């Protein structure tokens, strides 16, 4: 093309850079009131968890993305690599908590109702029963040392359900590229400490009363189609 | 197995004998003697000597750190979390090859250069929590004096610089961890470092001087998500410079920190 022979890559690049904008993230709203999940999870925890913890992840993720953008533009390879842990931690925190808020639902809106349909059958097939799945998630969640998440995942490739844990804010995909999160349970202490103190098993037992199986079923049906 | 008559190291030096005692196991120690059976010195008496760990008591009442660390936090942090690590460690030790090791030896050995063995988490947590309670005292904080202050000013420039570095490191941790003031053996200077999960400077061979638990359970009940208030209160009101002094004195047996400044008449 004639134009291309006149305009070299070097002169084109600054113009292109000018048009590229950085997508930043915002804190998603909760689809229910802070107190709506009581008594399983207290309103105080929900408020702090959403307004402070999740917000901090969003803020710091945006900061890290800006720094990443600058490093990429400058061709600063070392800088890009150095930002990876901040991106994984804060970006993971944002991703994980965004899923988590969808995983919870007030009892009055169907929270705690067991899964039916395709997901229900898949659970019976892969774990024997819903009780067995809950027991497995609870024991893995209780056994997790430090902070992290416990997931009900769909392995898209192997077409089976799995229970996985990830440390800190590592998203589920770090355990396998074909893993899709259906349910995530936050076992960081900030998720339960004010109410349950050190008794994480009680938190895990009670959270099932507000788990949104409908969302998990929707994701499952969409991803296993 | 070495026969150890040991009181596990108590670096507080506050004159309080900690309850932690490693009792001696004589299972592997069989002296054959016709006259005196050392492995069964009192025939007819049923007993069994074992070497397990116990929960050491902080060198102050559980409410003594108020209002900067509430009694409720100390009760749960010490009585539940720390205690759980002790119990789990002892459970591991029933079948572990590290049975009979001192805590410090076990931490270093089970860290296994970054691929920790199953005993690491609990042994290191027990060690670090013992160290943590002894890093604090009622009416702590403010400024250190004398040799400790000199060393801090030598290695950080000013005392405020040290506090800033310590705070920055504490707030930089992703997830659960600890922040340490420690003595670098090779460089013979003090430094600050954050660590993840249960890791302490013991694992890389240096000497811890102050340890602050930055796991959420350490501060959440008192400070919720406000970690900087927790760290500031620790530095301003809780840190035991007395413990620091004793630990530095002990460290000088291993690290030459230079000639003392003796004024010439």
UniProtKB/TrEMBL annotation, chain A:
Catalysed transformations (reactions): 2 superoxide + 2 H(+) = H2O2 + O2
GO terms under cellular component: mitochondrial matrix
SUPFAM superfamilies reported for this sequence: Fe,Mn superoxide dismutase (SOD), C-terminal domain, Fe,Mn superoxide dismutase (SOD), N-terminal domain
InterPro entries: Fe/Mn_Superoxide_Dismutase (IPR050265), Mn/Fe_SOD (IPR001189), Mn/Fe_SOD_BS (IPR019833), Mn/Fe_SOD_C (IPR019832), Mn/Fe_SOD_N (IPR019831), Mn/Fe_SOD_N_sf (IPR036324), SOD_C_sf (IPR036314)
Enzyme Commission no: 1.15.1.1
A GO molecular-function descriptor: superoxide dismutase activity
Similarity comment: Belongs to the iron/manganese superoxide dismutase family.
Subunit text: Homotetramer.
Name of this protein: Superoxide dismutase
Source organism per UniProt: Rhynchospora pubera
TrEMBL record, chain B:
Molecular-function annotations in GO: metal ion binding; superoxide dismutase activity
Entry similarity comment: Belongs to the iron/manganese superoxide dismutase family.
Uppermost EC category: oxidoreductase
Names of the cofactor(s): Fe cation
Residues annotated as transmembrane: none
Residues covered by the Manganese/iron superoxide dismutase N-terminal domain: 53-136
Pfam families from the UniProt entry: Sod_Fe_C, Sod_Fe_N
EC number: 1.15.1.1
SUPFAM superfamilies per UniProt: Fe,Mn superoxide dismutase (SOD), C-terminal domain, Fe,Mn superoxide dismutase (SOD), N-terminal domain
The name this protein goes by in its record: superoxide dismutase
Binding residues annotated for Mn(2+), in chain numbering: 77, 129, 213, 217
Main location: plastid
Occurrences of domain Manganese/iron superoxide dismutase C-terminal (ranges): 145-245
Keyword Plastid carried by entry: yes
């Amino acid at each position: 093309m004639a134009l291309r022979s006149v305009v070299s890559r070097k002169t084109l690049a600054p113009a292109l850079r000018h048009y590229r904008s950085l997508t930043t993230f915002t804190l998603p709203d909760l689809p229910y009131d802070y107190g709506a999940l009581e008594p399983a999870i207290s309103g105080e925890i929900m408020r702090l968890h959403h307004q402070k913890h999740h917000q901090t992840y969003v803020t710091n993720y945006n900061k890290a993305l800006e720094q990443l953008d600058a490093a990429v533009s400058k061709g600063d390879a070392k800088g890009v690599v150095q930002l990876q842990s901040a991106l994984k931690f804060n970006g993971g925190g944002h991703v994980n908590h965004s899923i988590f808020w969808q995983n919870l639902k007030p009892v009055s809106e169907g929270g705690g109702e067991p899964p039916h349909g395709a997901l229900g059958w898949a659970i019976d097939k892969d774990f024997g029963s819903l009780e067995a799945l809950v027991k497995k998630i609870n024991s893995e969640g209780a056994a997790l040392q430090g902070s992290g998440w416990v997931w009900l995942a769909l392995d898209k490739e192997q077409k089976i359900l799995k229970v996985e844990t990830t440390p800190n804010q590592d998203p589920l995909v770090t355990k396998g590229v074909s893993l899709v999160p259906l349910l995530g349970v936050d076992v960081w202490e900030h998720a339960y400490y004010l109410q349950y103190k050190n008794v994480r098993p009680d938190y895990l037992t009670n959270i099932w009363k507000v788990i949104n199986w409908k969302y998990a079923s929707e994701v499952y049906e969409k991803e296993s189609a | 197995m070495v026969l150890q008559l040991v009181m596990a190291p108590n670096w507080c030096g506050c004159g309080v004998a900690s309850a932690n005692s490693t009792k001696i196991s004589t299972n592997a120690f069989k002296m054959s003697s016709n006259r005196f059976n050392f492995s069964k010195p009192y025939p007819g008496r049923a007993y069994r000597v074992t070497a397990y760990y116990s929960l050491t008591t902080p060198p102050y009442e559980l409410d003594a750190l108020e209002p900067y660390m509430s009694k409720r936090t100390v009760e749960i942090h010490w009585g539940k979390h720390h205690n759980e690590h002790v119990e789990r460690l002892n459970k591991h030790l029933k079948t572990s090859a590290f049975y009979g090791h001192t805590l410090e030896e076990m931490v270093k050995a089970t860290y296994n250069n970054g691929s920790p063995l199953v005993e690491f988490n609990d042994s290191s947590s027990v060690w670090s929590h013992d160290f943590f309670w002894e890093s604090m005292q009622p009416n702590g904080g403010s400024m250190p004096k004398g040799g400790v202050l000199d060393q801090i000013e030598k290695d950080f420039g000013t005392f405020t610089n040290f506090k800033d570095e310590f705070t920055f490191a504490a707030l930089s941790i992703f997830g659960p961890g600890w922040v340490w003031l420690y003595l670098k053996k090779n460089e013979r200077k003090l430094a600050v470092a954050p660590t993840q999960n249960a890791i302490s400077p013991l694992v890389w061979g240096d000497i811890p001087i102050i340890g602050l638990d930055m796991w959420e359970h350490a501060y959440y009940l008192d400070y919720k998500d406000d970690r900087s208030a927790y760290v500031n209160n620790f530095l301003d009101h809780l840190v035991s410079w007395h413990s620091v002094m004793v630990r530095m004195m002990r460290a000088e047996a291993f690290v030459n920190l230079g000639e003392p400044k003796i004024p010439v008449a």
